[in-house]
Amino acid sequence: MAPKNDTTILVLALLITLGLAGGGFWWFTRPQNQGSDPKGNDANSQTTSSQPLNRNSPNPNSGQPVKSFAQLQNVPSALVSYGGSTTWAPIRREVDALIQVVWPDFKLRYTQHPTKPPGSGTGISMLLNDELAFAQSSRSIKDTEYQQAQQKGFTLKQIPVAIDGIAVAVNPNLDISGLTVAQLKEIYTGKITNWQELGGPNLPIVAYSRRPEDSGTIEFFVESILNGDRFAESVVFIPTTTEALRQVSNDLGAIYYASAPEVVRQCKIKPLPIAREVGQFVAPYQEPLVPPENCPAQRNQLNQAAFQSGEYPMTRRLFVIVKQNGQIDQQAGEVYSELMLTDQGQDLIRKAGFVSIR
Question: How many structural domains are present in the chain?
Fold first, then answer.
């Protein structure tokens, strides 16, 4: 009977071995994406715990750089309040509306301060006070703002997503061909007060500006063009670009500056070429200049090549300001930046009249 028992034992051992081998084969070859939804999030985890993406890393699904909004992963399902720069308004109209179509659960709500005028500084202040998830800015973060964030237990990060220029507007009937950066500074610091000093008519200059505390554009102008000097007492402060451009169109001696997309395509003003040195004028528009009588059938177009190359003297970057606190605010801000930096986002930024950053 011993040989029969030995045979039975050998057969049982063989069956056990085959069972273990088959189980191991199933374990290592089973699908790895079970339990995940179509957006790439684990079905058993909350979207708020997803890690922010790095825009330089490829799309984990395709191994290729992210091209469209729909390809982006880790987009949170949340109602997100954001706000800040008025310069960003054309981008919000073009980009944010399409984000809502592609990612309807990523609900973007532009939020203004109840009493302060909208602007980069106001947006960053609201971000520091936990009133916004992220902010849009047309200037860099200030040292004082970094310090305020640290005092509250987090840090701030600025992510550049577009390039903008500052354009100068005058009345279309003013006979002047352009200004140097130095001349522009002397106008706004009160050293040049008549257009005759610049080869124009004998006419007092009426310089308009928004207030520095209201706008990142103005803060950039003060730091980069005025080199930190104060505005002359003669400068007329005005609350909005729309109102300022209306004044310029009605006053032969008026001058104003703003984000190039807000100025270049206007019909009732003239954007001026600007130079670092006399004789090196670069227009913020694609030449030749469209005469006012041809507008709006024809409009001036932004000189994007000069802005992107830095040939135009007054350019700057636009930023998404993100709160680094490891919470949903950080994820929302970084994902919003990622959306802006996709190929689709950069195309829409160009459509809005700005220059893509890559």
Answer: 2
